[in-house]
Amino acid sequence: MKTTEKTFDAVRFMRQQRDKLSKKLSTMTKEEVLEYFNERKTHTTIKPGTQQP
How many Å apart are CA 19 and CA 33, to the nearest integer? Predict the structure, then answer.
């Protein structure tokens, strides 16, 4: 069985993103967190279950 070397580590990437977001949110109040996610929701263009062109 031939193995290939990974060019992208999805687990490491996800952990980095989670840590980055946790650090950012830890300094915010509950209201600021809600405002942050509501603002992100309006700017996010990728919707679950849809395909990108």
Answer: 15
